[in-house]
Amino acid sequence: MSLLPFLISGLGIGAVYALSGVGLVILYRSTGVLNFAFGAFGALGAHVAWQVLQWNWPLALAILFGVLTSTLVSFLYGRLFAPLLSHRDIVVRAVGTLAPALVLIAAMGVIWGELPRRLQFPTDQMYLTVFGVRLTFTRLIAFVLSLAMVGAITLLLNRTRLGLDMRALANDRDLSAILGVRVLHTETAAWVITGLFSGLAGLLLADLVRLQGTFLTFVVIPAIAAAILGQLRSLYITAIAGVGIGLAEAVLTPITLISPYRAAAPFVIALITVTILGSTSRASMRDR
User: Fold this and answer.
1) What range does the domain containing 236 cover?
2) Which of 52, 132, 204, 206 gives a 20 to 30 Å CA spacing to 139?
3) How much is the pLDDT for 285?
């Protein structure tokens, strides 16, 4: 059995994991918050986009409203609620993001139900043939978009005042405030950026897999695994890890004995990596 069709499929999903993981790392580096509501923000945006399409509005408007919705919800949480937990323990700040996730899951269930749907973009019907296997433009766009977003964020962090402030907050929040960094402004910007990432990821997954509130909310799990592989610092390693996790899940699909457990692949990969990193760190400490 050829694995190429599964690899092609996994490439698109992996690109979305990469996009999601990078969105998580950006926020964590700037605010110290691991956002468990990332997937829920994206799920809400995807549902709004689907609803706009049901009203026979143009696709461009549906995408715009979807991304704006995810970004707006992320902004509101980052502006109104996240500051209330800013001086609490890192675990408390992370657990705090479960509240909007649970609220949004319930709201989406009430408004749209849990019946699986799919967004269908015109690019699903456009494809390239790679070694006899169809690569749809949607999957290709997902991959190119993840590369473009990582590049854009790298430029933002390295070439702009906002990026400098975000990197300063990552090192020392209190000292940055003393030195004149507008902490609330910078942290809010980070929430807006991660909301943008969640909106794009939600739309892509709603097309590539399915549109369902609970499913899209839990996309944060492989994204967190990718972020852990990047040690919550490196954007490029996180992106590569996200693609790798998507490919790993896809390769396990045709293996009958393992296929039912392929969703555990992100956890296993992250656990092995953390164990190796921990062993390497302890070894380097002993050598000093």
Assistant:
1) 4-287
2) 52
3) 35
C-alpha 210/C-alpha 205 separation (Å) is 7
Quote the CA–CA distance of 76 and 269 in Å, as a whole number. Answer: 34
β-strand 127-130 against 133-136: which pairing, if any? antiparallel
213-235 pLDDT, tens digit per residue, is: 998 998 888 898 899 888 888 89
CATH code of the domain covering residue 84: 1.10.3470
Separation CA 252–CA 116 (nearest Å): 23
Give the contacts of 103 (CB within 8 A, at least 6 positions apart). Answer: none
Q: Are 97 and 194 in contact (CB under 8 A)?
A: no
What are 261's strand-pairing partners? none
Instruction: Count how many domains the chain has.
Output: 1
**Phi/psi at 93 (nearest 5 deg)?**
-65, -40
Distance, CA of 101 to CA of 217 (rounded, Å) = 7
Q: Quote the CA–CA distance of 78 and 93 in Å, as a whole number.
A: 11
What's the rounded mean pLDDT across residues 173-199? 87
